[in-house]
Automatic annotation (TrEMBL):
GO BP terms: lipopolysaccharide biosynthetic process
GO terms under cellular component: plasma membrane
Name of the protein in question: Peptidoglycan/LPS O-acetylase OafA/YrhL, contains acyltransferase and SGNH-hydrolase domains
Membrane topology, from the record: Multi-pass membrane protein
Domain SGNH per the UniProt entry, residue ranges: 413-616
Keyword annotations: Acyltransferase, Cell membrane, Membrane, Transferase, Transmembrane, Transmembrane helix
Organism of provenance: Caulobacter endophyticus
């Protein structure tokens, strides 16, 4: 097909928001939709080429994959090699073990499946997943394993039914994506059958399955509307919203409109997209996508190297470094291998790519057999780092009393809120920052039956933001509107990873609970860190810098004071976890055996939960003995 500069410009529109989003520019909270725009562009261009060759009768699957290898492999293999070197010098053993697995998966275009199998609320921090971004490349390659064969078969066997078959497959993929967003969010995000419809938006345009836009003013309207739709998604979407599913329609349809508008003539938006600087970003967009994530993850893992540099300067710096590396990669790797002096014939191309891939796989296998190349660190660091790969979190009772992402309210075990007539009944409600308190509170208050109703990301409030998952709304409704009115509970305990935005909803919740005569305890925010505490302690040990961990601590004091003030105003008891963890400015970091008390940025380990709970109860023995002042009478009847 004829080269279109505006499509390279559209690539720039796709990649820049992704890079800005990953760099941490909050002004573009929906920048992640750039990947969906890429899918539409890819589906359009690749389908157009396949269909043209099939129509001429000279389509070759081998030639098709040769073009894919020539386009994808050189820059990808270079990035994988560079990232592996970065991983060797920066990742802890457990992290290196996971990296080795992701490296092998990336080489075989299966990283989306790998990261899907690893997905979970307590999955290792994305700030150490150097190859996380390769999931989208794997989705594309898996699509192009199936789609050319499907297109070829349908054109031979059912030539007159191509369009309805494509529409049906697209509809099935879309329906699966919508259903998966609600039932299995990780599968909706990573798996190819839930993303195929996005690539097929481009395919239906390439196959001429929608009417061409002949009118000049309609072309202008379509192009402007398309860019506006993409822009709206970039500006107003939020990472917490259910995605992709139906929400992906906006950026995908927007990309489709821009492409369709440029098929039959020029437009003002097309001329803007064809502006040389914009086209240049589009030309380097593949390399920019490949390089930006390792650069940003590397910068985050080694943030201590930047001293007191302003956060904005670091963000801008990582973007500029990514663009420089992408330009070098495009000029010296992509272009020469595709159409320059390094362009190889088919056989040597496959051989070279195969050898390079085999070397990377061998490195990945070595990382597996040598337990993440643990020899790089001292036994003490290895001991600390073990927590980074411990995902059991049994102390939270995950899957029964704590609902992780991807679960539903039906998974909640009502035995978690079974009352005990021999003890005081406390109902602990909240998110994971409530769940990690259960173990310690149960140990520190043996005279109290600590019941638990918690779910990841679910604040214990009567109302919820629009981005709240259905399981959050359902569980909180079950507790506040169903359980509490029908069971006499001695004390309701609310705990969460509180933010300032939660205060109005928390105020309304406290007002209602106190009006119902319920005794309420609110636990404040816990100490947090910019990176997982085990990693920070390991780096501190390696650098022989005892102050390093303190420098990476997040200041939660303002939120702590605000939540405490609100709780006391509403007649609730308040427990400042931040003060309990850091008495006199000395923060609790390790337990008696030297293990970190938090296994990531802030969640408590079992021992950390117990130590903190015992501190809290020792400071306020009345915590397990009822309210400070008698609450108004209630008509609730205590039941099992």
């Amino acid at each position: 097909m004829q080269y279109r500069r505006d499509i390279d410009g559209l690539r720039a529109v796709a990649v820049l928001p992704v890079v800005a989003f990953h760099a941490g520019f909050n002004q573009l909270p929906g920048g992640f939709v750039g990947v969906d725009v890429f899918f539409v562009i890819s589906g359009y261009l690749i389908t157009a080429n396949i269909f043209a060759e099939l129509s001429r009768g000279d389509f070759s699957l081998v030639r098709f994959y040769e073009r894919r290898v020539r386009r994808i492999a050189p820059a990808l293999l270079a990035v994988l090699a560079a990232t592996t070197a970065l991983a060797y010098f920066t990742l802890l053993p457990g992290e290196m073990l996971e990296y080795a697995r992701s490296l092998i998966a990336s080489v075989f275009s299966a990283s989306n499946v790998f990261f899907w199998t690893q997905a979970g609320y307590f999955d290792s921090d994305s700030s150490t997943k150097l190859l996380l971004h390769t999931w989208s490349l794997s989705v594309e390659e898996q699509f192009y394993i199936v789609f050319p064969l499907l297109l070829s078969f349908v054109l031979r066997a059912f030539p007159t039914r191509l369009k309805p078959i494509i529409w049906v497959l697209m509809a099935v993929s879309f329906a699966s994506a919508v259903a998966s967003v609600a039932l299995a969010p990780s599968a909706a995000f990573y798996l190819p059958h839930n993303r195929a419809w996005e690539l097929m938006v481009g395919s239906v345009l390439a196959l001429g399955m929608v009417p061409k836009i002949r009118s000049a003013w309609l072309r202008e309207t379509a192009a402007l509307s398309g860019l506006a739709m993409i822009g709206a998604a970039v500006l107003f979407y939020r990472e917490q919203m259910p995605f992709p599913g139906a929400a992906a329609i906006l950026p995908c349809l927007g990309a489709g409109l821009v492409i369709a508008a440029g098929e039959t003539g020029p437009t003002l938006m097309g001329r803007l997209l064809s502006w040389r600087p914009v086209v240049f970003i589009g030309l380097i967009s593949y390399s920019l996508y490949l390089w930006h994530w390792p650069v940003m993850v590397g910068a985050q893992m080694n943030s201590f190297l930047f001293g007191g540099a302003p956060a904005m300067a670091i963000k801008i710096g990582t973007v500029l470094v990514s663009i420089v590396l992408a330009t070098i990669s495009w000029w010296f790797i992509e272009r020469p291998f595709r159409n320059g002096p390094l362009k190889l014939a088919q056989k040597p191309l496959f051989q070279l790519a195969g050898v390079a891939a085999a070397v990377l796989v061998a490195v990945g296998v070595a990382g597996q057999f040598d337990q993440g190349l643990a020899y790089r660190y001292s036994p003490r660091v290895q001991q600390i780092a073990d927590l980074l790969t411990d995902k059991s979190h049994r102390q939270m009772r995950e899957g029964s009393c704590f609902l992780p992402s991807g679960s539903t309210v039906d998974d909640f075990d009502m035995a978690c809120v079974k009352q005990d007539p021999q003890r005081r009944d406390y109902l602990l409600i909240g998110d994971s920052h409530a769940a990690h308190l259960w173990y310690g509170l149960a140990k520190a208050m043996p005279t109290v039956n600590v019941m638990q109703a918690t779910a990841s990301g679910c604040k214990p409030t009567l109302t919820h933001p629009g981005s709240a998952e259905e399981r959050c709304v359902a569980l909180m409704d079950r507790m506040f509107d169903g359980y509490l009115p029908s069971h006499k509970v001695d004390t309701v305990v609310l705990a969460a990873r509180w933010k300032r935005d939660d205060l109005p909803r928390l105020e309304a919740t406290l007002t209602k609970l106190r009006a119902q005569g319920l005794d309420v305890i609110v636990f404040g925010p816990i100490i947090e860190y910019r990176s997982p505490l085990p990693r920070l302690l390991a780096v501190s040990d390696r650098m022989h810098d005892p102050d390093f961990v303190d420098e990476q601590r997040v200041d939660v004091s303002a939120v702590d004071r605000a939540v405490g003030k609100l709780a006391r105003q509403k007649g609730a008891r308040y427990v400042s976890l931040a003060s309990a963890m850091c008495p006199a400015g000395h923060c609790l970091e390790v337990d008696g055996k030297g293990y970190p008390v938090q296994f990531d940025y802030g969640h408590l380990t079992g021992s950390g939960s117990e130590i903190l709970a015992r501190r809290v109860v020792a400071k306020d023995p009345g915590l397990s003995q009822g309210p400070i002042a008698a609450a108004p009478a209630t008509t609730n009847a205590k039941g099992a």
